[in-house]
Predict the 3D structure of the following.
Amino acid sequence: MQYHKSFQTSNNNPFSSIIGVVLGILFLLGLFFVARFIFTILYYLSPVMLIAALIIDYKSVTGYGKWLMDKVKTNPLLGIGGILLTVLAFPLVSLFLLGKALFKKKVREVEQEVERQREGEYVDFEELDSEPMDLKRLEEQFREQEGPKRRRSNYDDFFDSQS
């Protein structure tokens, strides 16, 4: 006689799939509220961010406007869509423009630093209106510190005869 045992591993509980769906919906609702909160903060800060972008680098803002106008001229449908998306997503666009302006400013600073390192810095100087230095006395002190006298060579005579 044979015995046949079978184990059923599936759960026939209908509430387990409903709990999963409810948890998924709650997670998406939580993401929605967090995104809405961030977007609201960006909405109120967007004029400040746009003004800051204009102060830091106005060319980034004007360049974006020129790019939109070029899109309208070359492809009117795409240009108008870009303008509508700019208006609807104004907080995101102002954040983007501020980031672009800050990035361009940082690039300029790094370029200036590299240029300064390559060419050196100019140093302010003052002209001194004093009496000339006594170089003979300094030469004598140097010769005393130099140590034993070396003998003169033809090379030394060459420079003495030139002057």
Observations:
- The radius of gyration is 39 Å.
